[in-house]
Amino acid sequence: MQDEFDVIDRYFAGFSQSDLVRLGPGDDCAILAPPSGDDVVVSTDTLAAGVHFPQDASGNIVVQRALGANLSDLAAMGANPMAVLSALTLPEVEDGFLQDLSDTFRRECDRWQVPLVGGNLCQGPLSITLTVIGTVPSGSALCRNGARVGDDLYVSGTLGDAAAGLQYLANPVNARDVPDNVAKALIDRYERPVPRLAVGQKLRPLASAAIDISDGFSSDLVHLCQASGVDATVELADLPVSEALSRLFPDERDQLALHGGDDYELCFTADPEHRDVIDGLSSSLGLTLTRVGSMGVAGGGAPLTFLRNGQITKAGSGGYRHFSRADDTGGTR
């Protein structure tokens, strides 16, 4: 029978390191050497079976959701990945699951150039906690509290796809009428989120504030407004949605785009003088950066105003919050 050290040696030894890692896995602590003149940014997230991924999720999905979510926090700060730590809790040692998890972890760490420098392994209900460490030139990190009155409001990519993918997995509606590739496009957005690291790094000299969209666009935008002390006006007709979402969930499209979680896109604000540069950045990255509204004076009430073709409208509420019955998604998010 394999114990924890056998598992570590078999599945987690020999990960690629970088020049910024002076001492990697195997000692009591890792030793990192950030570039001179850089600030260090750190974030951590726990993903638990039955909450953030299905109980029977493969190791591949567990890692991709966990690493994508954590690296998205670095993207929101405009940071360059430096290292990651992993704390994995397993109910039992299952070789097939662990091999899948290990293979994916190695591939994704190489893909995003973020070395695994240590961690922990214990027995219990399945969960994974990652701590990501990144760097930014001193004083240049993007934060939530910099939005100003008159700034444009942007989002990257498309909204609502991940929530739609999860909804489809739970209830494959209209499956007979939709090609497999349409549903797969939405499911992939849920199972394999892509952190917008390059976007965040390029936005450092342009954006006044930024946040990653994890709990839902509307919910995370409220956090940005509260941190910055401003309100936001959002034009629903401008929200970027994919053809797959429109085709599979035409009646729920706007609600999923506004309130669905797990997009891991970036929501950011910028002075209108940067519009042409941001348009050029969108073209060079091959990713839509869509202006969806503007920031205004805080009125003391609800921080978000929604328009449809210029007319004020109601848009419901949503977004994910742990321990909130009203936002319970029924097991996974």
TrEMBL record:
Gene Ontology molecular function, alphabetical: ATP binding; magnesium ion binding; thiamine-phosphate kinase activity
Binding-site residues, Mg(2+) 1: T44, D45, N120
Chain positions recorded as Mg(2+) 3 binding sites: D28, D73, D212
CDD domains: ThiL
Enzyme class (EC, first level): transferase
Residue ranges occupied by any PurM-like N-terminal domain in the UniProt entry: 26-136
Cross-referenced Gene3D superfamilies: PurM-like C-terminal domain, PurM-like, N-terminal domain
Residues given in the record as Mg(2+) 4 binding sites: D28, S43, D73
EC number(s) reported in the record: 2.7.4.16
Chain positions recorded as ATP binding sites: G119, N120, R144, S214
GO biological process assignments: thiamine biosynthetic process; thiamine diphosphate biosynthetic process
Keyword Aminoacyl-tRNA synthetase: no
Sites where the protein binds Mg(2+) 2: D45, D73
Pathway: Cofactor biosynthesis; thiamine diphosphate biosynthesis; thiamine diphosphate from thiamine phosphate: step 1/1
Domain PurM-like C-terminal: 148-295
Keywords: ATP-binding, Kinase, Magnesium, Metal-binding, Nucleotide-binding, Thiamine biosynthesis, Transferase
InterPro entries for this protein: PurM-like_C_dom, PurM-like_C_sf, PurM-like_N, PurM-like_N_sf, ThiL-like
Residues where substrate binds: H52, D262, Y320
Function of the molecule: Catalyzes the ATP-dependent phosphorylation of thiamine-monophosphate (TMP) to form thiamine-pyrophosphate (TPP), the active form of vitamin B1.
Other remarks in the entry: Reaction mechanism of ThiL seems to utilize a direct, inline transfer of the gamma-phosphate of ATP to TMP rather than a phosphorylated enzyme intermediate.
PANTHER family assigned: THIAMINE-MONOPHOSPHATE KINASE
NCBIfam families linked: thiL
Similarity-based family: Belongs to the thiamine-monophosphate kinase family.
Protein name: Thiamine-monophosphate kinase
Lineage summary: Bacteria, Pseudomonadati, Pseudomonadota, Gammaproteobacteria, OMG group
Gene: thiL
